[in-house]
User: Fold this.
Amino acid sequence: MIIQIDNLTKWYRKGRTSKVPAVDNLTLAIAKGEVFGFLGPNGAGKSTVIKILLNFIRPSAGTAMIKGIPVQDPLARGSIGYLPENPYFYDHLTAEEILMFGGRTARMDRNLIGERIDQLLARLKLAHVKRQRIRTYSKGMVQRIGLALALIHDPEVCILDEPMSGLDPLGRRLVADLILDMRRNGRTVFFSSHILSDIEKLCDRVGILNRGRLLYCGNTDTLQAGAGGLEKMFIQLVEQDERENHGADLAIG
Ligand SMILES: Nc1ncnc2c1ncn2[C@@H]1O[C@H](COP(=O)(O)OP(=O)(O)OP(=O)(O)O)[C@@H](O)[C@H]1O
Assistant:
């Protein structure tokens, strides 16, 4: 398995005395070449899992590995491309400068980086702003530069935290096409999203998280065959978990 998460738990402090589990004994394995959609309501723990995979934060218990390498080992990061939930750049830099920096950090050859920049900016419909400073970009343009930076070194594993966030329908289509291309090229994509229609279209499998626990993990084909598809299933599972395990009546939908 290219991503292997075992019994992962992350506690955060809440006030002085109490702690809440943001991730609660999560076990999950993603195969090479899979497009995996990671879903869950706000605060379910998706970004926390992603931050652990990137080794930005440490788990309280359990393990996470990329290509069999524990995520704490810097070697594990060599094969990852990462898009944060809210990408942020120095706004006096241009797209070209940011992407060149990203490519150099990944130890790529300058000429190769140049080619890759042109290719990615064309795909993301940003070629015309290559030499413009980021401060002149709209929110959706910054998001697309974030994606280009995640992909500059053609990573084996792409971990994308809400890649469609802030994008218009055309931007979403561009990102969806890029994800499908990555799958065709044997790349693995692990992404979180609240846009269930995108998840249904793009993913081989989905995992549904609530309060840090995995409520469902499985194939999207089976879901579509079921009545109501992913949206209905998502709402039912989360409502049921809230009612049965947390005494809350959500009354969603
Ligand atoms: N640094 C922190 N300190 C304390 N609690 C935190 C911290 N970061 C996250 N949390 C809590 O951990 C839980 C999971 O948060 P996380 O950001 O992982 O959720 P998410 O599923 O990514 O949510 P969203 O869909 O809103 O982005 C939430 O209850 C959140 O309040």
In short: Strands lie at 3-14, 18-30, 35-39, 61-66, 69-70, 80-83, 157-161, 188-192, 205-210, 213-219. The CA atoms of residues 242 and 248 lie 5 Å apart.
